[in-house]
Amino acid sequence: MARLGDLCDILNGYAFKSEQYVGSGIRIIRIANVQKGYIEDSTPVFYPIDNNEYKKYELMEGDLLLSLTGNVGRVALLQKEFLPAALNQRVACLRIKDETILSKSFLFNFLNSDYFENKCIESAKGVAQKNMSTEWLKEYDIPLLAIEKQEKISKELDQISNLIFIRKQQLSKLDELVKARFVELFGDPVVNPKSWETAPLSALIINANNGMARRGKDVDGSIVLRLVELQNGFIDYSAPNRICLNETEKKRYELVDNDFLFARVNGNPDYVGRCAVFKSIDEPVFHNDHIIRVHFDEAKINGCFMSVLLNSDYGKSQMREQIKTSAGQYTISQDGIGAIIAILPPLELQNQFAAFVEQTDKSKSEIQKSLEKLETLKKALMQKYFG
């Protein structure tokens, strides 16, 4: 074992002033950018490059960055595409002193283990917001194996990580393919270049209701969908909640093929209104009152088409206009959903699009199965090597 502080230079960031952010210059790497394993910077901020304050905090390619506040213990490797960059406060930078003793890849994998992240969380102070210190980090002991062993472990984990990355890219490309096919067939719904008829959803809804308010957790109960299961365009059955229902509840809240589900309430407005079409599985499924169930006129609407439309930027923009807020919660009502305007291409064209999506989903399903196996394997190896 060896202390991180003996193996690495550990640097603190600088409190760059947000009022001095500019449109170009040096990129500031903040807490929000440091995700588990990667840097996310879709909305970058910059600081005047001629300001010498940043020099001491300038980052280099390959720097290991670690979040010290909020979701503490997240670690990312800084890539060349984000340079030039400087380190903001509450993010730590780790630079290995001697890579003949400690492999960067080995350290990166160790720091990204659940074991290390849990240790960071345990060390953090604060109630409303967790904070960990670089002093704790410097004193933390890590396993120091022979460099050949480190490199062997790293190679094995990196190969699996690369395959996981490829699988995720494949899924992303298939999603982009569906979006491109949608625009090819229907045009951009914002400008409606093909002059399709439009209508408020209220004119297309046959019936609608909120779900059941009662809560429960029964091993032998029926699946009752919550917000966590309702994702953008699909329903996640990996860990559903179950409740023993009476006959009245079953009759009122059971879902049927082509029901459309909307997220009704959340503390994050971006989650309100996310939606998916329901398809029957091998057992009855019900829904709670955080979800609104509607059924569209199937002579006018294909659920797959509507799902892609409402989960697009256009649909989300329409949804945001109908969201209300109260006591820190954001909600959309049945009337709000009914006010959303949809384009109405011919049903035959909608069905053609749905058939394309169905074939794409089959490919995605196979890739997803492969991805899940790889992630399970990586998790097992991380547990084996790092505890």
Structure, described:
With 387 residues, the chain is α+β, with helices and mostly antiparallel strands. It folds into 3 domains: 143 residues, Alpha-Beta Complex (Adenine-n6-DNA-methyltransferase TaqI, Chain A, domain 2), CATH 3.90.220; 74 residues; 148 residues, Adenine-n6-DNA-methyltransferase TaqI, Chain A, domain 2, CATH 3.90.220.20. The chain has 10 helices and 23 strands. The strands form 8 sheets. A 4-stranded antiparallel beta sheet has the order 2-8-5-6. A 4-stranded antiparallel beta sheet has the order 11-20-16-18, covered by helices on one side. A 3-stranded mixed beta sheet has the order 4-3-7, with no helix packed on it. Strand 21 and strand 22 form a beta hairpin. Helix 5 runs antiparallel to helix 10. The mean pLDDT is 92.
* CATH class label of the largest domain: Alpha Beta
The SS-based structural class is: alpha+beta
Instruction: State which percent range the strand residues make up.
Output: 15-25%
The overall average pLDDT, rounded, is 92
Between the first and last Cα atoms, what is the distance in angstroms?
A: 14 Å
CATH architecture type of the largest domain: Alpha-Beta Complex
What would the CATH topology of the largest domain be? Adenine-n6-DNA-methyltransferase TaqI, Chain A, domain 2
Computed CA radius of gyration, to the nearest angstrom:
25 Å
Tell me the number of structural domains.
3
**Low-pLDDT sequence parts:** none
Globular, elongated, flat, extended or rod-shaped: what is the shape?
globular
Can you tell me the CATH superfamily of the largest domain? DNA methylase specificity domains
Number of alpha- plus pi-helical segments: 10
Number of DSSP strands? 23
Overall helicity: 25-40%
Major beta-sheet overview: 4 strands, antiparallel
Strand order in the sheet with the most strands: 2-8-5-6
